Fold this sequence. Notes:
seven-stranded mixed sheet, alpha+beta
Amino acid sequence: xxxxxxxxxxxxxxxxxxxxxxxxxxxxxxxxxxxxxxxxxxxxxxxxxxxxxxxxxxxxxxxxxxxxxxxxxxxxxxxxxxxxxxxxxxxxxxxxxxxxxxxxxxxxxxxxxxxxxxxxxxxxxxxxxxxxxxxxxxxxxxxxxxxxxxxxxxxxxxxxxxxxxxxxxxxxxxxxxxxxxxxxxxxxxxxxxxxxxxxxxxxxxxxxxxxxxxxxxxxxxxxxxxxxxxxxxxxxxxxxxxxxxxxxxxxxxxxxxxxxxxxxxxxxxxxxxxxxxxxxxxxxxxxxxxxxxxxxxxxxxxxxxxxxxxxxxxxxxxxxxxxxxxxxxxxxxxxxxxxxxxxxxxxxxxxxxxxxxxxxxxxxxxxxxxxxxxxxxxxxxxxxxxxxxxxxxxxxxxxxxxxxxxxxxxxxxxxxxxxxxxxxxxxxxxxxxxxxxxxxxxxxxxxxxxxxxxxxxxxxxxxxxxxxxxxxxxxxxxxxxxxxxxxxxxxxxxxxxxxxxxxxxxxxxxxxxxxxx
Length: 517
Protein backbone atom coordinates (compact mmCIF):
# COMPACT_ATOMS: atom_id res chain seq x y z
CA UNK A 1 0.00 0.00 0.00
CA UNK A 2 1.34 3.42 -0.91
CA UNK A 3 2.36 5.79 1.85
CA UNK A 4 1.48 8.77 -0.31
CA UNK A 5 -1.20 10.88 1.33
CA UNK A 6 -4.19 12.07 -0.70
CA UNK A 7 -5.73 15.00 1.17
CA UNK A 8 -4.31 17.92 3.09
CA UNK A 9 -4.85 19.21 6.60
CA UNK A 10 -7.75 21.49 5.66
CA UNK A 11 -9.67 18.86 3.72
CA UNK A 12 -11.90 19.24 0.69
CA UNK A 13 -15.22 20.30 2.22
CA UNK A 14 -15.82 23.92 1.25
CA UNK A 15 -18.51 24.20 3.94
CA UNK A 16 -16.21 23.23 6.79
CA UNK A 17 -16.20 25.92 9.46
CA UNK A 18 -13.22 27.71 10.95
CA UNK A 19 -13.23 29.37 14.35
CA UNK A 20 -10.51 32.02 14.05
CA UNK A 21 -7.61 32.06 16.47
CA UNK A 22 -8.15 34.43 19.40
CA UNK A 23 -5.99 37.53 19.02
CA UNK A 24 -3.06 38.38 21.29
CA UNK A 25 0.69 38.62 21.58
CA UNK A 26 2.61 36.06 19.51
CA UNK A 27 5.05 34.97 22.23
CA UNK A 28 5.03 34.78 26.01
CA UNK A 29 8.49 36.32 26.07
CA UNK A 30 6.76 39.66 25.54
CA UNK A 31 4.99 39.31 28.92
CA UNK A 32 8.17 39.83 30.92
CA UNK A 33 7.85 36.43 32.57
CA UNK A 34 6.86 33.25 30.78
CA UNK A 35 3.92 31.49 32.46
CA UNK A 36 4.65 27.96 33.63
CA UNK A 37 2.01 25.32 32.89
CA UNK A 38 1.63 21.68 33.88
CA UNK A 39 -0.12 19.39 31.40
CA UNK A 40 -1.24 16.19 33.09
CA UNK A 41 -1.69 13.45 30.51
CA UNK A 42 0.31 12.69 27.38
CA UNK A 43 -2.46 11.44 25.13
CA UNK A 44 -3.83 13.33 22.13
CA UNK A 45 -5.53 15.97 24.28
CA UNK A 46 -2.49 16.63 26.45
CA UNK A 47 -0.06 16.66 23.55
CA UNK A 48 -2.31 19.09 21.68
CA UNK A 49 -2.61 21.43 24.67
CA UNK A 50 1.14 21.23 25.27
CA UNK A 51 1.80 22.06 21.61
CA UNK A 52 -0.61 24.99 21.64
CA UNK A 53 1.04 26.45 24.73
CA UNK A 54 4.68 25.73 23.88
CA UNK A 55 4.31 27.28 20.42
CA UNK A 56 3.39 30.55 22.14
CA UNK A 57 6.46 30.45 24.35
CA UNK A 58 4.75 29.18 27.52
CA UNK A 59 6.93 26.96 29.72
CA UNK A 60 5.32 23.50 29.59
CA UNK A 61 5.92 20.47 31.80
CA UNK A 62 4.00 17.41 30.64
CA UNK A 63 3.39 14.56 33.08
CA UNK A 64 2.46 11.16 31.65
CA UNK A 65 1.80 8.17 33.89
CA UNK A 66 2.81 5.62 31.26
CA UNK A 67 6.32 5.19 29.88
CA UNK A 68 5.13 6.26 26.42
CA UNK A 69 3.22 9.12 24.83
CA UNK A 70 -0.01 8.91 22.86
CA UNK A 71 -2.42 7.73 25.54
CA UNK A 72 -4.95 5.32 24.08
CA UNK A 73 -3.27 5.82 20.69
CA UNK A 74 0.18 5.10 22.08
CA UNK A 75 2.53 2.21 21.47
CA UNK A 76 5.29 0.48 23.36
CA UNK A 77 8.05 -2.07 22.86
CA UNK A 78 7.20 -5.72 23.39
CA UNK A 79 8.60 -9.10 22.33
CA UNK A 80 7.19 -12.25 20.84
CA UNK A 81 7.96 -15.58 22.46
CA UNK A 82 10.89 -16.12 20.08
CA UNK A 83 12.41 -12.82 21.19
CA UNK A 84 11.40 -10.80 18.12
CA UNK A 85 10.95 -7.13 19.11
CA UNK A 86 7.59 -5.65 18.14
CA UNK A 87 5.67 -2.47 18.82
CA UNK A 88 2.37 -3.19 20.54
CA UNK A 89 -0.55 -0.80 20.88
CA UNK A 90 -4.18 -0.72 21.88
CA UNK A 91 -5.20 -1.33 18.33
CA UNK A 92 -6.34 0.09 15.04
CA UNK A 93 -7.43 3.74 14.87
CA UNK A 94 -8.95 5.42 11.81
CA UNK A 95 -7.70 8.94 11.04
CA UNK A 96 -10.65 10.35 9.12
CA UNK A 97 -10.13 13.28 6.75
CA UNK A 98 -12.61 15.41 8.76
CA UNK A 99 -10.38 15.18 11.84
CA UNK A 100 -9.14 18.68 11.05
CA UNK A 101 -7.82 19.57 14.50
CA UNK A 102 -6.02 16.28 15.01
CA UNK A 103 -4.50 16.53 11.55
CA UNK A 104 -3.38 20.08 12.33
CA UNK A 105 -1.46 18.67 15.30
CA UNK A 106 0.16 15.93 13.22
CA UNK A 107 1.08 18.45 10.53
CA UNK A 108 3.41 20.17 13.01
CA UNK A 109 5.97 17.49 12.19
CA UNK A 110 4.53 16.13 8.93
CA UNK A 111 3.19 19.08 6.90
CA UNK A 112 2.07 16.90 3.99
CA UNK A 113 0.79 14.13 6.30
CA UNK A 114 3.04 11.74 4.40
CA UNK A 115 3.25 9.44 7.41
CA UNK A 116 -0.42 8.59 6.96
CA UNK A 117 -1.53 6.17 4.28
CA UNK A 118 -5.07 5.80 2.88
CA UNK A 119 -7.18 2.70 3.40
CA UNK A 120 -9.03 2.23 0.08
CA UNK A 121 -12.17 0.77 1.66
CA UNK A 122 -13.52 -0.81 4.83
CA UNK A 123 -16.29 -3.27 4.11
CA UNK A 124 -18.90 -4.01 6.77
CA UNK A 125 -20.29 -7.55 6.93
CA UNK A 126 -23.33 -8.97 8.75
CA UNK A 127 -24.10 -12.51 9.97
CA UNK A 128 -25.63 -13.42 6.59
CA UNK A 129 -22.53 -12.42 4.66
CA UNK A 130 -24.12 -9.27 3.25
CA UNK A 131 -21.49 -6.61 2.76
CA UNK A 132 -21.62 -2.83 2.56
CA UNK A 133 -18.68 -0.74 1.40
CA UNK A 134 -17.84 2.95 1.31
CA UNK A 135 -15.48 3.02 -1.66
CA UNK A 136 -16.68 4.94 -4.69
CA UNK A 137 -19.45 6.82 -2.92
CA UNK A 138 -20.04 10.49 -3.73
CA UNK A 139 -18.78 12.70 -0.91
CA UNK A 140 -21.44 15.39 -0.83
CA UNK A 141 -24.35 14.99 1.62
CA UNK A 142 -27.13 13.97 1.32
CA UNK A 143 -26.28 12.35 -2.03
CA UNK A 144 -23.70 10.15 -0.28
CA UNK A 145 -26.31 8.71 2.10
CA UNK A 146 -28.81 8.12 -0.70
CA UNK A 147 -26.17 6.39 -2.84
CA UNK A 148 -25.12 4.22 0.09
CA UNK A 149 -28.72 3.19 0.81
CA UNK A 150 -29.56 2.45 -2.83
CA UNK A 151 -26.58 0.15 -3.38
CA UNK A 152 -26.68 -1.51 0.05
CA UNK A 153 -27.81 -5.16 0.22
CA UNK A 154 -29.25 -4.49 3.68
CA UNK A 155 -31.13 -1.25 2.96
CA UNK A 156 -33.95 -1.56 0.43
CA UNK A 157 -36.08 1.10 -1.21
CA UNK A 158 -39.03 -0.03 0.90
CA UNK A 159 -36.92 0.63 4.00
CA UNK A 160 -36.53 4.26 2.95
CA UNK A 161 -40.30 4.55 2.61
CA UNK A 162 -40.86 3.05 6.07
CA UNK A 163 -38.57 5.49 7.86
CA UNK A 164 -40.41 7.80 10.25
CA UNK A 165 -39.28 11.03 8.62
CA UNK A 166 -40.20 13.39 11.43
CA UNK A 167 -38.45 11.41 14.11
CA UNK A 168 -35.42 10.88 11.87
CA UNK A 169 -35.05 14.61 11.15
CA UNK A 170 -32.41 15.19 13.87
CA UNK A 171 -30.02 12.99 11.86
CA UNK A 172 -30.20 15.40 8.93
CA UNK A 173 -30.24 18.62 10.96
CA UNK A 174 -27.51 18.08 13.56
CA UNK A 175 -26.28 21.16 15.34
CA UNK A 176 -24.33 20.97 18.61
CA UNK A 177 -25.52 21.45 21.33
CA UNK A 178 -29.11 21.47 19.99
CA UNK A 179 -29.06 17.79 19.03
CA UNK A 180 -28.32 16.89 22.66
CA UNK A 181 -31.44 18.76 23.79
CA UNK A 182 -33.38 16.74 21.22
CA UNK A 183 -31.95 13.25 21.67
CA UNK A 184 -29.83 12.94 24.80
CA UNK A 185 -32.80 11.54 26.75
CA UNK A 186 -32.93 8.52 24.40
CA UNK A 187 -30.56 5.61 23.97
CA UNK A 188 -29.29 4.88 20.48
CA UNK A 189 -31.06 1.52 20.18
CA UNK A 190 -34.46 2.99 21.11
CA UNK A 191 -33.99 5.88 18.71
CA UNK A 192 -33.17 3.58 15.80
CA UNK A 193 -36.23 1.47 16.57
CA UNK A 194 -38.42 4.56 16.86
CA UNK A 195 -37.49 5.81 13.37
CA UNK A 196 -38.03 2.33 11.85
CA UNK A 197 -34.41 2.01 10.77
CA UNK A 198 -34.13 -1.50 9.29
CA UNK A 199 -32.60 -4.00 11.69
CA UNK A 200 -30.21 -5.50 9.13
CA UNK A 201 -28.81 -2.11 8.15
CA UNK A 202 -28.77 -1.10 11.81
CA UNK A 203 -26.04 -3.65 12.49
CA UNK A 204 -23.85 -2.22 9.75
CA UNK A 205 -24.59 1.46 9.38
CA UNK A 206 -25.16 2.41 13.02
CA UNK A 207 -24.02 -0.18 15.54
CA UNK A 208 -20.57 -0.09 14.00
CA UNK A 209 -20.47 3.62 14.78
CA UNK A 210 -21.93 3.32 18.28
CA UNK A 211 -19.53 0.56 19.22
CA UNK A 212 -16.64 2.81 18.23
CA UNK A 213 -17.47 4.36 21.61
CA UNK A 214 -16.90 0.88 23.12
CA UNK A 215 -20.53 0.85 24.21
CA UNK A 216 -23.63 -1.14 23.42
CA UNK A 217 -26.24 0.94 21.52
CA UNK A 218 -28.63 0.39 24.43
CA UNK A 219 -26.28 2.31 26.74
CA UNK A 220 -25.18 5.09 24.39
CA UNK A 221 -26.91 8.46 24.07
CA UNK A 222 -28.77 8.79 20.79
CA UNK A 223 -27.45 12.35 20.56
CA UNK A 224 -23.87 11.08 20.59
CA UNK A 225 -24.72 8.65 17.80
CA UNK A 226 -26.39 11.39 15.74
CA UNK A 227 -23.39 13.70 16.20
CA UNK A 228 -21.06 10.94 15.10
CA UNK A 229 -23.16 10.18 12.03
CA UNK A 230 -23.18 13.89 11.16
CA UNK A 231 -19.40 14.12 11.57
CA UNK A 232 -18.69 11.16 9.31
CA UNK A 233 -21.55 11.10 6.85
CA UNK A 234 -24.51 13.48 6.71
CA UNK A 235 -22.69 16.65 7.72
CA UNK A 236 -19.33 16.28 5.99
CA UNK A 237 -18.25 16.15 2.36
CA UNK A 238 -14.88 14.58 3.23
CA UNK A 239 -16.24 11.07 2.71
CA UNK A 240 -16.15 8.02 4.93
CA UNK A 241 -12.76 6.68 3.95
CA UNK A 242 -9.80 7.29 6.22
CA UNK A 243 -6.04 7.10 6.67
CA UNK A 244 -3.88 5.12 9.06
CA UNK A 245 -0.28 5.62 10.20
CA UNK A 246 2.20 3.90 7.89
CA UNK A 247 4.36 2.86 10.87
CA UNK A 248 3.50 2.11 14.52
CA UNK A 249 2.12 5.07 16.46
CA UNK A 250 5.34 6.06 18.27
CA UNK A 251 7.48 6.17 15.15
CA UNK A 252 4.88 7.77 12.88
CA UNK A 253 3.27 10.25 15.27
CA UNK A 254 4.46 10.78 18.80
CA UNK A 255 8.26 10.53 18.67
CA UNK A 256 8.38 13.34 16.06
CA UNK A 257 5.92 15.42 18.10
CA UNK A 258 8.01 14.90 21.23
CA UNK A 259 10.94 16.36 19.30
CA UNK A 260 8.79 19.30 18.21
CA UNK A 261 7.91 20.00 21.84
CA UNK A 262 11.47 19.54 23.07
CA UNK A 263 12.62 22.09 20.48
CA UNK A 264 10.27 24.52 22.25
CA UNK A 265 11.76 23.72 25.65
CA UNK A 266 8.88 21.59 26.84
CA UNK A 267 9.79 19.17 29.63
CA UNK A 268 8.26 15.75 28.88
CA UNK A 269 8.17 13.42 31.89
CA UNK A 270 6.93 9.98 30.94
CA UNK A 271 6.53 7.41 33.70
CA UNK A 272 5.58 10.19 36.13
CA UNK A 273 2.17 10.03 37.79
CA UNK A 274 0.44 13.04 39.32
CA UNK A 275 -1.42 12.09 42.49
CA UNK A 276 -3.01 15.43 43.41
CA UNK A 277 -2.96 19.17 42.79
CA UNK A 278 -2.95 21.88 45.43
CA UNK A 279 -3.98 25.50 45.08
CA UNK A 280 -1.05 27.78 45.91
CA UNK A 281 -2.06 31.43 45.90
CA UNK A 282 -2.83 32.37 42.32
CA UNK A 283 -1.13 29.19 41.05
CA UNK A 284 -0.93 25.47 41.73
CA UNK A 285 1.48 23.04 43.32
CA UNK A 286 2.24 19.55 42.06
CA UNK A 287 4.59 17.90 44.52
CA UNK A 288 7.33 20.42 45.19
CA UNK A 289 6.83 22.37 41.97
CA UNK A 290 4.70 25.45 41.40
CA UNK A 291 2.82 26.23 38.20
CA UNK A 292 0.78 29.18 37.02
CA UNK A 293 -1.78 26.94 35.32
CA UNK A 294 -2.72 23.28 34.91
CA UNK A 295 -4.29 21.32 32.06
CA UNK A 296 -5.90 18.09 33.23
CA UNK A 297 -5.90 15.94 30.10
CA UNK A 298 -6.26 12.54 31.75
CA UNK A 299 -8.47 9.61 30.95
CA UNK A 300 -11.65 9.33 33.00
CA UNK A 301 -10.21 7.14 35.79
CA UNK A 302 -7.18 9.43 36.10
CA UNK A 303 -9.24 12.63 36.14
CA UNK A 304 -11.60 11.30 38.78
CA UNK A 305 -8.71 10.06 40.90
CA UNK A 306 -6.80 13.36 40.83
CA UNK A 307 -9.86 15.50 41.55
CA UNK A 308 -10.91 13.20 44.41
CA UNK A 309 -7.41 13.55 45.91
CA UNK A 310 -7.43 17.37 45.50
CA UNK A 311 -10.21 18.57 47.81
CA UNK A 312 -9.34 22.24 47.38
CA UNK A 313 -10.13 22.32 43.66
CA UNK A 314 -13.35 23.60 42.14
CA UNK A 315 -16.90 23.84 43.40
CA UNK A 316 -19.04 21.00 44.78
CA UNK A 317 -21.14 20.87 41.62
CA UNK A 318 -18.07 20.74 39.38
CA UNK A 319 -16.47 18.03 41.48
CA UNK A 320 -19.72 16.07 41.34
CA UNK A 321 -19.73 16.38 37.53
CA UNK A 322 -16.22 14.95 37.35
CA UNK A 323 -17.13 12.15 39.75
CA UNK A 324 -20.21 11.40 37.61
CA UNK A 325 -18.07 10.57 34.55
CA UNK A 326 -18.08 6.87 33.74
CA UNK A 327 -16.08 4.47 31.63
CA UNK A 328 -17.45 2.23 28.91
CA UNK A 329 -17.38 -1.56 29.27
CA UNK A 330 -14.07 -3.36 28.71
CA UNK A 331 -12.68 -3.84 25.24
CA UNK A 332 -10.26 -6.44 23.95
CA UNK A 333 -7.46 -6.14 21.41
CA UNK A 334 -5.96 -9.42 20.23
CA UNK A 335 -3.00 -9.40 17.84
CA UNK A 336 -1.80 -12.57 16.13
CA UNK A 337 1.42 -13.18 14.23
CA UNK A 338 0.57 -16.06 11.87
CA UNK A 339 2.90 -18.33 9.90
CA UNK A 340 1.12 -17.82 6.57
CA UNK A 341 -0.39 -14.90 4.69
CA UNK A 342 -4.01 -13.86 4.78
CA UNK A 343 -5.65 -14.26 1.36
CA UNK A 344 -4.65 -11.39 -0.93
CA UNK A 345 -8.29 -10.51 -1.57
CA UNK A 346 -9.00 -9.67 2.05
CA UNK A 347 -9.40 -5.97 2.92
CA UNK A 348 -6.97 -4.26 5.25
CA UNK A 349 -9.89 -3.56 7.58
CA UNK A 350 -13.22 -5.37 7.93
CA UNK A 351 -15.99 -4.19 10.22
CA UNK A 352 -18.57 -6.65 11.49
CA UNK A 353 -22.13 -6.28 12.76
CA UNK A 354 -24.09 -8.89 14.68
CA UNK A 355 -21.09 -11.22 15.04
CA UNK A 356 -20.25 -10.94 18.73
CA UNK A 357 -17.78 -10.64 20.25
CA UNK A 358 -15.91 -9.62 17.08
CA UNK A 359 -16.23 -6.00 15.95
CA UNK A 360 -13.48 -5.76 13.35
CA UNK A 361 -10.48 -7.43 11.77
CA UNK A 362 -7.34 -5.60 10.70
CA UNK A 363 -4.58 -7.07 8.55
CA UNK A 364 -1.70 -4.93 9.79
CA UNK A 365 0.85 -6.01 7.21
CA UNK A 366 -1.31 -4.37 4.53
CA UNK A 367 -0.58 -0.87 5.83
CA UNK A 368 1.90 -0.80 8.74
CA UNK A 369 5.57 -0.92 7.89
CA UNK A 370 6.79 -2.89 10.90
CA UNK A 371 4.16 -5.61 10.38
CA UNK A 372 4.82 -5.66 6.62
CA UNK A 373 8.54 -6.18 7.14
CA UNK A 374 7.88 -9.03 9.59
CA UNK A 375 5.45 -10.65 7.13
CA UNK A 376 7.93 -10.41 4.26
CA UNK A 377 10.70 -11.89 6.38
CA UNK A 378 8.64 -14.83 7.66
CA UNK A 379 6.08 -15.36 4.91
CA UNK A 380 3.33 -14.83 7.48
CA UNK A 381 0.81 -12.14 8.38
CA UNK A 382 -0.16 -9.95 11.32
CA UNK A 383 -3.86 -9.87 12.18
CA UNK A 384 -5.62 -7.84 14.84
CA UNK A 385 -9.08 -8.56 16.29
CA UNK A 386 -11.21 -6.14 18.34
CA UNK A 387 -14.07 -6.87 20.72
CA UNK A 388 -15.81 -3.79 22.10
CA UNK A 389 -18.05 -3.82 25.16
CA UNK A 390 -17.00 -7.38 25.86
CA UNK A 391 -16.34 -9.08 29.18
CA UNK A 392 -16.52 -12.72 28.12
CA UNK A 393 -14.04 -15.05 29.80
CA UNK A 394 -13.54 -16.97 26.56
CA UNK A 395 -13.18 -13.90 24.38
CA UNK A 396 -9.83 -14.90 22.82
CA UNK A 397 -11.14 -18.28 21.70
CA UNK A 398 -14.39 -16.72 20.44
CA UNK A 399 -12.49 -14.07 18.48
CA UNK A 400 -10.26 -16.68 16.88
CA UNK A 401 -13.30 -18.74 15.89
CA UNK A 402 -14.89 -15.72 14.21
CA UNK A 403 -11.63 -15.02 12.38
CA UNK A 404 -11.43 -18.59 11.12
CA UNK A 405 -15.02 -18.50 9.90
CA UNK A 406 -14.64 -15.19 8.07
CA UNK A 407 -11.09 -15.84 6.83
CA UNK A 408 -10.96 -19.66 6.51
CA UNK A 409 -7.31 -19.67 5.39
CA UNK A 410 -6.31 -18.64 8.93
CA UNK A 411 -7.80 -21.76 10.53
CA UNK A 412 -4.77 -23.89 9.65
CA UNK A 413 -2.23 -21.17 10.44
CA UNK A 414 0.22 -21.64 13.27
CA UNK A 415 0.34 -18.77 15.74
CA UNK A 416 3.95 -17.60 16.03
CA UNK A 417 3.11 -14.84 18.49
CA UNK A 418 0.07 -13.43 20.25
CA UNK A 419 -0.67 -10.52 22.55
CA UNK A 420 -4.10 -9.89 24.07
CA UNK A 421 -4.99 -6.67 25.89
CA UNK A 422 -8.08 -5.94 27.99
CA UNK A 423 -8.71 -2.32 28.96
CA UNK A 424 -11.54 -0.30 30.50
CA UNK A 425 -10.74 3.40 30.42
CA UNK A 426 -12.73 4.83 27.51
CA UNK A 427 -15.45 7.35 28.38
CA UNK A 428 -19.09 6.31 28.35
CA UNK A 429 -21.64 8.77 26.96
CA UNK A 430 -24.82 7.58 28.66
CA UNK A 431 -28.39 8.73 28.20
CA UNK A 432 -28.85 12.15 29.79
CA UNK A 433 -25.16 12.66 30.48
CA UNK A 434 -24.47 15.67 28.25
CA UNK A 435 -25.89 18.32 30.59
CA UNK A 436 -23.64 17.07 33.41
CA UNK A 437 -20.48 16.65 31.31
CA UNK A 438 -17.73 19.04 32.51
CA UNK A 439 -16.52 21.53 29.87
CA UNK A 440 -13.00 22.76 29.14
CA UNK A 441 -13.34 25.79 31.39
CA UNK A 442 -13.57 25.03 35.11
CA UNK A 443 -14.64 27.19 38.06
CA UNK A 444 -10.99 27.20 39.19
CA UNK A 445 -9.03 30.04 37.51
CA UNK A 446 -6.00 28.68 35.70
CA UNK A 447 -7.29 25.08 35.63
CA UNK A 448 -8.74 23.65 32.39
CA UNK A 449 -9.79 20.21 31.18
CA UNK A 450 -9.15 18.41 27.90
CA UNK A 451 -9.97 14.96 26.56
CA UNK A 452 -12.57 13.02 24.63
CA UNK A 453 -14.78 12.86 27.74
CA UNK A 454 -14.90 16.66 28.03
CA UNK A 455 -17.76 18.76 26.68
CA UNK A 456 -17.13 21.03 23.74
CA UNK A 457 -20.09 22.38 21.78
CA UNK A 458 -18.82 21.43 18.36
CA UNK A 459 -19.59 18.41 16.12
CA UNK A 460 -16.54 16.31 17.04
CA UNK A 461 -16.00 12.84 18.50
CA UNK A 462 -13.33 10.38 19.63
CA UNK A 463 -9.76 11.38 18.67
CA UNK A 464 -10.99 14.61 17.09
CA UNK A 465 -12.77 15.62 20.30
CA UNK A 466 -9.56 14.97 22.21
CA UNK A 467 -7.55 17.20 19.87
CA UNK A 468 -10.26 19.89 19.74
CA UNK A 469 -10.47 20.16 23.53
CA UNK A 470 -6.68 20.25 23.68
CA UNK A 471 -6.54 23.29 21.41
CA UNK A 472 -9.48 24.84 23.28
CA UNK A 473 -7.77 24.32 26.65
CA UNK A 474 -4.59 25.98 25.35
CA UNK A 475 -6.64 28.87 23.95
CA UNK A 476 -8.41 29.36 27.27
CA UNK A 477 -5.11 29.80 29.11
CA UNK A 478 -3.43 31.79 26.34
CA UNK A 479 -6.34 34.23 26.26
CA UNK A 480 -6.02 34.81 30.01
CA UNK A 481 -2.40 35.87 29.47
CA UNK A 482 -3.15 38.02 26.44
CA UNK A 483 -1.45 35.60 24.05
CA UNK A 484 -2.66 34.60 20.61
CA UNK A 485 -4.57 31.33 20.35
CA UNK A 486 -4.98 28.73 17.64
CA UNK A 487 -7.82 28.34 15.12
CA UNK A 488 -10.27 25.44 15.30
CA UNK A 489 -11.88 23.81 12.29
CA UNK A 490 -14.91 21.51 12.18
CA UNK A 491 -17.42 20.02 9.83
CA UNK A 492 -20.44 22.37 9.46
CA UNK A 493 -22.25 22.71 12.79
CA UNK A 494 -25.59 22.41 11.05
CA UNK A 495 -27.28 19.96 8.76
CA UNK A 496 -26.88 20.16 5.00
CA UNK A 497 -30.63 20.71 4.73
CA UNK A 498 -31.05 23.84 6.89
CA UNK A 499 -34.69 24.33 5.90
CA UNK A 500 -35.56 21.28 7.98
CA UNK A 501 -34.04 22.69 11.16
CA UNK A 502 -37.23 24.26 12.49
CA UNK A 503 -39.17 21.03 11.93
CA UNK A 504 -36.60 19.12 13.99
CA UNK A 505 -36.43 21.59 16.87
CA UNK A 506 -38.51 19.58 19.34
CA UNK A 507 -37.19 16.69 21.45
CA UNK A 508 -37.86 13.26 19.99
CA UNK A 509 -39.84 10.67 21.96
CA UNK A 510 -39.29 6.95 21.68
CA UNK A 511 -43.02 6.28 21.32
CA UNK A 512 -44.10 3.25 19.38
CA UNK A 513 -42.07 2.39 16.28
CA UNK A 514 -44.09 3.06 13.19
CA UNK A 515 -46.79 5.02 15.05
CA UNK A 516 -45.80 8.34 13.49
CA UNK A 517 -46.50 10.09 16.79
